[in-house]
Amino acid sequence: MTARLPLWRPLKGKNTNRQNQPFSLLILNQSKKVSLLAADTTRYPDESKYIEQFRQRLEQVEASIRQAALAAGRDPASLTLIGVSKQFPAFAALAACRVGIRDLGENRVQDLLAKKEELAAAGEEPHWHMIGTLQRNKVKQLVGRVHLIHSVDSLALMEEISRRSQAGGLVSDILLQVNSSGEASKHGFDPDALPAAVEQARSWQGIRLCGLMTMAQLAENPDETLPVFTRTQALFERLAEQQGHPAAWSVLSMGMSQDYLQAIRCGATHLRIGSALFGPRPQA
For 157-205, what is each residue's pLDDT tens digit? Predict the structure, then answer.
């Protein structure tokens, strides 16, 4: 797994000479096929206004992350901010990259791959994270095209990722999703099953086990999520000890727009933030 990035970084090299081009024109100039952004301009007609609003939200999120990290005695630069662009059009994902977001998360394979292609045509190649439920029949499409798979929730899925990765001569970085809240509606390993799952993962080729991911319950008071995050942090530390503290075991993915400040207090390294950055999700 590559070294952890700061929250964002300035654009460099070939991208900088295109900053003033409209997003829709930029994409259509780069791609011969119909662009997602052709429709996006009707949803976001004022591109400069949208990117400025995004920049303002990003500054607010950055400030709150920095404050929470320092209050917890942590280095803000040790955190990775993942902009969750799910359900937003490619326009919004491209805007995120233009203001410096370098990690994007999607919950559907087809959406991730489509946006990955669109943004690459515009000269943007962020780290893509698969954060949603992953079906085994979609693994072949995803392997080799994503930076980190957060949502490995069964041995069968892990085995399929291993098999497909080996077939392609690759090593895929993965996280085990744990259902720390105990909700029936949540996917993930039961906490008691994690030690055996970790041992199994270490025996398979083609995958690199990097840590855990969890989602807390929705709560009116964000502090109600603290027990879930604390429980997951304790699991993360116990499993690190079980494995002899391998260097790759470094990712604790937890915290979303409503509870990322609580997750920081409990040791989260990767924050999955959507609406706090992108604004309200478009209605279907």
Answer: 999 999 999 999 999 999 999 998 877 778 899 999 999 999 999 899 9
At residue 127, what is the residue type? Answer: H
Contact status, residue 252 vs residue 232, Cβ threshold 8 Å: yes
| Residue 28, domain member (yes or no) | no
CA distances to 72, 190, 246 from 177, rounded to whole Å, are 25, 9, 19
Domain presence at residue 113? yes
Q: Which residue has the tokens 């045509």?
A: 121
Residue 257 lies in a domain: yes
Per the domain annotation, does 24 fall within a domain? Answer: no
Backbone angles phi, psi at 125, to 5 degrees: -130, 75
The first and second tokens of residue 76, run together, are 């803000």
Which range marks the domain in which residue 74 is found?
46-278
**3-state class (DSSP) for residue 39:** helix
Asked if 156 contacts 128 with a C-beta cutoff of 8 angstroms, the reply is no
Question: Considering all CA atoms of the chain, what is the largest pairwise distance in Å, rounded to the nearest integer?
Answer: 54
DSSP 3-state of 76: helix
Neighbours of 181 (CB within 10 A): 21
* Domain harbouring 179, CATH code: 3.20.20.10
pTM for the whole thing?
0.84
Backbone angles phi, psi at 185, to 5 degrees: -80, -10
